[in-house]
Design brief:
The complex is a heterodimer. Chain A is mostly helical. Chain A contains 12 helices and no strands. In chain A, α1 crosses α3. Classes of the chains: A mainly alpha, B mainly alpha.
Chain lengths: 230, 141
């Protein structure tokens, strides 16, 4: 089979993704500091570059895996429910923390891009970068940003937050399931939350609550902001 | 009998997955009708409400949801591979984009973390209790 024909079967990229993920997971369980998402994605990116294959060829199979993010996001309701009773007293305060944190995120992202001379469309694309991909794409479109830039920022933010977020928090002596979960869920949405699932269910639950709250809060802010931008 | 237990377990996963997908579809339908939240988030909130009001029992979805969540990182891999495509986009204002990303990520983490340290103080037993439970769930795969 030629190199170009290699990816025409969706099953090939699916099998490859599962295999590199399994490797990443194994390394992560052995050495906790290794981020599984980087181990899983890097060999595939290298292979595509070496074979001069476009992402779209890989994504014929990859899209099937991405689709599962839908039911995967819905599944976050389970840890939210299981920990809901224990967390109920702190939920209003969590809402405040997440709203303020999301505001800091939006303002700092927009201001930095603006100060470095990015054009208006790019500045607007940076605003929704802390929320989960589907919400971010919608907001970016509505505000007049460039969705592709937003997607890239969302993914990089998620991967960085998932890989180094907990370490950064620990350096600042921020510990405890509620503080860790709130910060990771607000700053790096689903990818960050996914990385917490294996650390502690409670952290993942708080992170899911934070992620959902951040998504709702930023959607509302964007709806209001839209009127001022016109 | 082992065989029968196997079948029951498969049914458990199947039922849970079907429920998760159904809630996703309801959420996507709501989005199509004009709900500003994306389908998956609406689906999440609806499933949460359904469980709170006992329309859906936790054990109907628990197994399947656990499977999805344990391997959620896998589901983000193709999107991460897609970063390959954004190279040309980053050429124009790449520095501004990267700087904005890093500054905002740090600012959000630190602001949220410090605010939570103040408003949601350390809850000692939570992390300690949750760990072994998750490990057990991971091992009974």
């Amino acid at each position: 089979m030629t190199a170009a024909g290699f990816f025409t079967l969706p099953a090939v990229s699916i099998a490859m993704t599962v295999a590199t993920y399994a490797l990443g997971l194994r390394l992560h369980l052995r050495w906790r500091w290794i981020p599984p998402i980087l181990v899983a994605a890097a060999p595939i990116i290298c292979l595509l570059v070496v074979l001069h294959e476009p992402f779209s060829a890989y994504n014929r199979g990859g899209a099937w895996i991405t689709w599962l993010l839908g039911p995967g996001t819905v599944a976050l309701a389970v840890p939210m429910f299981r920990n809901g009773i224990a967390l109920r007293p702190s939920l209003p305060r969590l809402g405040i923390v997440v709203s303020l944190g999301s505001t800091v995120g939006m303002v700092s992202a927009g201001l930095t891009a603006w100060a470095l001379g990015a054009p208006r469309a790019v500045v607007l694309s940076t605003l929704p970068k802390s929320v989960t991909t589907p919400i971010a794409i919608e907001i970016s479109k509505e505000l007049g940003g460039i969705p592709a830039i937003t997607i890239a920022m969302v993914v990089i933010t998620g991967v960085l937050g998932a890989s180094f977020g907990v370490t950064i928090l620990q350096l600042l002596h921020i510990r405890g399931a509620r503080a860790t979960g709130a910060a990771i869920g607000t700053a790096s949405h689903g990818v960050g939350t996914a990385s917490l699932v294996r650390r502690s269910e409670r952290e993942a639950a708080v992170s899911s609550w934070a992620m959902a709250a951040a998504g709702i809060f930023i959607s509302i802010v964007a709806t209001i902001l839209k009127f001022f931008l016109k | 009998m082992l065989h029968k237990r196997r079948m029951e377990e498969m049914w458990d996963y199947l039922r849970g997955t079907l429920l998760l997908v159904s809630f996703l579809f309801v959420g996507q339908g709501a989005h199509w009708l004009g709900c500003p939240l994306p389908g998956s988030v609406t689906g999440l909130l609806l499933l949460l409400l359904a469980m709170i009001f006992r329309l859906v029992r936790l054990q109907w979805v628990e197994k399947a949801a656990g499977l999805f969540l344990r391997h959620m990182v896998l589901l983000f891999v193709p999107v991460t591979v897609g970063l390959l495509e954004v190279g040309p986009l980053l050429k124009q204002s790449g520095l501004a984009i990267l700087a904005s990303l890093v500054v905002s990520l740090l600012a959000t983490l630190i602001a949220t973390g410090l605010l939570s340290r103040w408003l949601l103080p350390y809850d000692e037993n939570s992390t300690v209790n949750a760990g072994p439970e998750m490990l057990r769930q991971m091992e009974d795969r």
